[in-house]
Amino acid sequence: xxxxxxxxxxxxxxxxxxxxxxxxxxxxxxxxxxxxxxxxxxxxxxxxxxxxxxxxxxxxxxxxxxxxxxxxxxxxxxxxxxxxxxxxxxxxxxxxxxxxxxxxxxxxxxxxxxxxxxxxxxxxxxxxxxxxxxxxxxxxxxxxxxxxxxxxxxxxxxxxxxxxxxxxxxxxxxxxxxxxxxxxxxxxxxxxxxxxxxxxxxxxxxxxxxxxxxxxxxxxxxxxxxxxxxxxxxxxxxxxxxxxxxxxxxxxxxxxxxxxxxxxxxxxxxxxxxxxxxxxxxxxxxxxxxxxxxxxxxxxxxxxxxxxxxxxxxxxxxxxxxxxxxxxxxxxxxxxxxxxxxxxxxxxxxxxxxxxxxxxxxxxxxxxxxxxxxxxxxxxxxxxxxxxxxxxxxxxxxxxxxxxxxxxxxxxxxxxxxxxxxxxxxxxxxxxxxxxxxxxxxxxxxxxxxxxxxxxxxxxxxxxxxxxxxxxxxxxxxxxxxxxxxxxxxxxxxxxxxxxxxxxxxxxxxxxxxxxxxxxxxxxxxxxxxxxxxxxxxxxxxxxxxxxxxxxxxxxxxxxxxxxxxxxxxxxxxxxxxxxxxxxxxxxxxxxxxxxxxxxxxxxxxxxxxxxxxxxxxxxxxxxxxxxxxxxxxxxxxxxxxxxxxxxxxxxxxxxxxxxxxxxxxxxxxxxxxxxxxxxxxxxxxxxxxxxxxxxxxxxxxx
Length: 703
Prior knowledge:
- This protein is an alpha/beta fold.
- The protein has five domains: 4-215, P-loop containing nucleotide triphosphate hydrolases (Rossmann fold); 224-369, 3-Layer(aba) Sandwich (Rossmann fold), CATH 3.40.50; 383-458, Winged helix-like DNA-binding domain superfamily/Winged helix DNA-binding domain (Arc Repressor Mutant, subunit A, Orthogonal Bundle); 470-533; 575-699.
- It contains 29 helices and 24 strands.
- The strands form five sheets. A seven-stranded parallel sheet has the order 3-4-2-5-6-1-7, with helices on both faces. A six-stranded parallel sheet has the order 8-13-12-9-11-10, sandwiched between helices. Strands 17-16-20-19-18 form a five-stranded mixed sheet.
- Helix 3 (27-37) packs parallel to helix 4 (52-66), helix 9 packs parallel to helix 16 and helix 24 crosses helix 29.
- It starts with a helix and ends with a helix.
C-alpha cells in the first residue's frame, strides 16, 4: 500500500519537502492522511504539538487541489479567537504554498475585509462557532453562494466543545450549513486528550452518511518531571516559582483571574519578566505577552485556561500550576506544553496553598499515570441551546413555522431526547411569555426576547454564553470588596457558600441578580472556603475516589517534597479512625461527618434524599456530608442511609417532588429564563444530581 504522502498531489508533496523541509510524515499524519483521503469522518488524537493540524489539513488540501471549490471548500473551527489568530499564519502558509487562499473571520476582522471575502471567497475559512452563527444570521452573507460547495469542517480542540452548550450550538450550526450544499460534509475533530473518542465521533457524525474512524496511533511513553509542593502562602509560592523560573520560559496556570493577578503581582521584580494572560486582559496586552514570550527566555506568563488550548507560544521550559485543575484532561493539556524539544522532559510543578488542593494534584497525577482521562459527556436534552436555536432561526428567516424549526433541529444529536410533544410545550410557553410572536402560522422574535437579548443587533444572542457579567461584592456596611463573574455567582448559595476575595474568606448572605450585587460577611472562624474556592465545584467520582485511596494509604509519594509529605501524613493520621469504619462516618453528639469521597453530584443527591424523612441540616461538598440534627444518632443515621439504598425510594414521585422542590435556583444558562419551569429545573438537576450513580454508590456501602 502506498504511503499517504504518495497519495498527495505532486505540488503538495513538493511544497512539504521544499517549503517545510520535511523528510517524512509523522505516524498520526500517515494514518489520518489515508482516513481523510478515503473520505471518512474522523477524530484525530495526538499530544499537544503532535502534528494534528497538518494531519487534517494536508489531505483536505489535497482534495481541494484536485477539484478547486466554488466558494468555501473547508471550514476550520476553533473554540477561541486566540487559537484562530495563532493558527492563521500557519494555515495561510499551507494554503498559499499550493496556490489556494484562506480567510480569517471573527469579530475583530474589519467589515471591508469581510465584504472582500464575500465577493471573492477563499477555499479555506477559519472561524469560531459564534462567528459562523453570525454569518448564518446576516442578510449580507450569500449563504447559497458561499457554502454551496462546502466539503469539510475541521474542529480543533473538539474536547473543549463536545458535551457543552457551545458544542450543541456548533453541531446545530453545522447541520444548518449542510442544507446549503448537496455534499455530505466531511467532519474532522482534533483533540489531544479525550477518554471516549468513539462517542465523540458518533456525536460529530450527525446526519453524515460517511464511514467514520478514530485515528489514534500508539503513544510513545516518555519520562516526565512532576512535583507537588505545599507552600500555604502566595508569597512563598511566588518566591519559589521565581527562583525556579530564572533564565527560562514558563507558563504559570491559575484557576481564576484574581489568583493569576495576585501571583503575577508577587512575582514581579524578582528577576523574571512577568506577564498576565486571561480573558479580562486586553487583546493588545495578551498579544504583547505572547510575542515577548516567543522572542526570548527569562519570561513567565501567569495565565488561566486561555493558554491551555494549543496556542503556540514557542519553545517552553517550565509549566507551573497554582493549586490544581479539576480534571485530568486539563492537566494533560498543560503538561503537554512542555517536552517538545529533543532531550527535554515534559514537566509540571504544582504549588498548592493547602493540603486539599495538594491531594487533588496528587490524585490527578496518579489517574494520569494509569492512563485514565475523563470521558466527555454527551447530551440529548440540551434545552438552553434549543431556545437559542429557535430564536436564531427566527432571525435567519425573518419568520418560520414551528414545523420547519423542528425539522431543522430534531436531527441534532443533542436534541434527540426531546419529544415532539415537549417541543410543542416549549413553543407554547415561549409564545405565552412573549419570547416568540406567532402570527399566520409563523414564529418571529418576540418583544421580550428583544428586550432581554438586545434590540440593537442581537449580539447577546449570537453567543451561547454571555460576555462575563460582573457582580459587586459588598459588605453589609456598603464597602465594595471587589467583583465576581456571574458564572461564579450563579453557583453561590446564601448563608452556605464561602469564598476567597482580596485575600480574605467571606460568606455570601444575600444575592441580588437585578442589581448584580453579592452581600457578604466575614466567614466564621474555622469555616473554610469551598474546595478550590468555588461553590459548588463539581469534582468527579473517579477523582474523589483516587483522593480517598491516597488518604487511606501509608505509601510515600515520590514526587512531593518532605514538607508536603509531613503535612499529608498528619492529615492521614487525622482520618485514620475512618479506616476501621466501613462507611466512613464520624459522629460527635448531634453532629456527623460522612466521608463518602463520592463527588459533588452523588453527595448533593444524598443530601436531599436524607432530608426527605428528617429535618436535618446537611451541607455537602465533593468529599463529605456534614449532618446536624436533634434526632441524629448512629442508629438513626444508619436507618436513614439504609432507606435510601432502595431504588424504589428514589423512583417514588413523592421523593422526587421533594428533591426538586429543594433545589436552588441556579442560573446555568442565560436562556433558562425562556424555559418552562419543568425544563429549567431539569437543567439544574442534571448539573447537581446523579440518582443512578447514588444508587450504585449505596450498593457498595455496608449498612
